[in-house]
């Protein structure tokens, strides 16, 4: 029987999922926290001619995690925008999204839904350039977090439909709104902040690449401080989520503990009553036993208990005062056997039972 366990199935599910989510969020938070710590420790280097010399002296000609800023410059031909002739860039992202309204039968409204139909990313090799001739080649830019790119083109193609389409929409619960076409670009000349591993390659070129130790690789069109604060903010959000889920788990446990304690209290109270009635019974037994022992076959004892007998079993003496009605009509074992907690005489709900002390 489920009642014997301190936790109900639903509570176990709630507890399990809140603990699991809390653990997951805490894991993400720890990872983010580590990223923020690494960002805080990362030295910010100036992109100038000294950089190659600095790297030449570094062990393994490599600096593991550094911040560097410069302007985007393509190594060969840049990418040309498909929609704006004048725009040139080094990373280009073309996305086609479908927008439609979907009937939500729970909320009984139409809700917006978006789906990526098609996405294409193009990239050409590029450098970050600083003062003078100094340049850093950016490797694997698509593996980096970011950069946020400039929206070059955005166009919404409205869906058009006839009468039969309307019937189809009514039946399927889906109304196409149209398609959104966007082009984003990391433009030539944009200011870029890179955080990653810096190496001096055999061709004496300085290159920025994803860190070998698995730290997060960043490319950002904002400045470093913005990037750092953004990561810190994300860490705080994950921590708050983890704490909320842990608290929810604790709340479920407390709730179950409270319920369990209440049930124990009821059990103790019942046990206490039972013992009290038992004591009464034995006292009554002791009081009558000498008389029955002396009187021997005293048959006149029979009618006396009859007028005081329990209305249920007609055998034991009445020993309970039922509250709130106050009826004294049954013995304790019959009270315990009552199918519902209502008085057998007046049907009022029994809120409490008190032993009857006869002197
Ligand atoms: Zn009885
Ligand atoms: Zn009653």
Helix proportion range = 25-40%
- Bound compounds: zinc ion
Which overall shape is indicated by the principal axes computed on the Cα atoms?
elongated
End-to-end CA span = 43 Å
Task: Please tally the β strands and state the result.
Answer: 14
What is the rounded Rg? 41 Å
Contiguous helical run count? 6
Main sheet attributes: strand count, strand direction, barrel closure: 5 strands, mixed, barrel
Structure in words:
There is one protein chain. Helix content is 37%, strand content 29%. It is of the alpha+beta class and 359 residues long. It has three domains: 1-41 and 223-286; 63-222, no CATH class; 307-359, Zinc/RING finger domain, C3HC4 (zinc finger) (Herpes Virus-1), CATH 3.30.40. The chain has a five-stranded mixed beta barrel. α2 (50-57) links the parallel β1 and β2 (62-74). α1 packs antiparallel against α4. One zinc ion is lined by residues 322, 325, 327, 343, 345-346, 348.
């Amino acid at each position: 029987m489920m009642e014997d366990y301190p936790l109900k199935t639903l509570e176990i599910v709630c507890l399990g999922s809140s603990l699991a989510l809390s653990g997951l969020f805490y894991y993400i938070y720890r990872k983010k926290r580590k990223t923020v710590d690494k960002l805080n420790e990362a030295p910010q280097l100036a992109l100038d001619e000294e950089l190659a010399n600095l790297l030449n002296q570094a062990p393994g000609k490599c600096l593991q995690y550094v911040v560097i800023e410069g302007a985007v410059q393509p190594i060969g031909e840049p990418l040309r925008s498909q929609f704006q002739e004048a725009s040139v860039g080094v990373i280009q992202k073309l996305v086609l999204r479908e927008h439609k309204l979907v009937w939500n039968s729970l909320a009984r409204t139409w809700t917006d839904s978006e789906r990526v139909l098609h996405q294409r990313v193009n990239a050409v090799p590029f450098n970050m350039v600083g003062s003078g001739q100094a340049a850093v080649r950016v490797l694997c830019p698509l593996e980096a977090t970011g950069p946020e790119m400039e929206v070059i083109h955005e166009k919404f193609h409205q869906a058009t439909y006839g009468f039969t389409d309307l019937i189809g929409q009514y039946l399927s619960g889906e109304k196409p709104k149209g398609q959104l076409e966007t082009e984003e670009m990391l433009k030539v000349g944009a200011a870029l902040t890179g955080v990653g591993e810096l190496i001096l390659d055999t061709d004496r070129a300085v290159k920025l690449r994803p860190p070998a130790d698995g730290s997060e690789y960043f490319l950002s069109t904002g400045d470093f401080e913005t990037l750092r604060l953004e990561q810190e903010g994300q860490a705080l959000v994950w921590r708050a989520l983890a704490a909320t889920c842990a608290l929810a788990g604790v709340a479920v446990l407390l709730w179950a503990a409270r319920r369990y304690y209440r049930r124990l209290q009821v059990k103790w109270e019942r046990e206490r009553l039972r013992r009290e009635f038992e004591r009464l019974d034995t006292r009554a037994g002791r009081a009558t036993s000498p008389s029955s022992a002396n009187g021997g076959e005293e048959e006149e004892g029979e009618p006396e208990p009859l007028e005081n007998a329990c209305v249920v079993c007609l055998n034991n003496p009445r020993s309970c005062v039922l509250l709130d009605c106050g009826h004294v009509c049954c013995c304790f074992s019959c009270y315990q056997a009552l199918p519902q907690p209502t008085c057998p005489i007046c049907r009022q709900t029994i809120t409490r039972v008190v032993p009857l002390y006869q002197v």
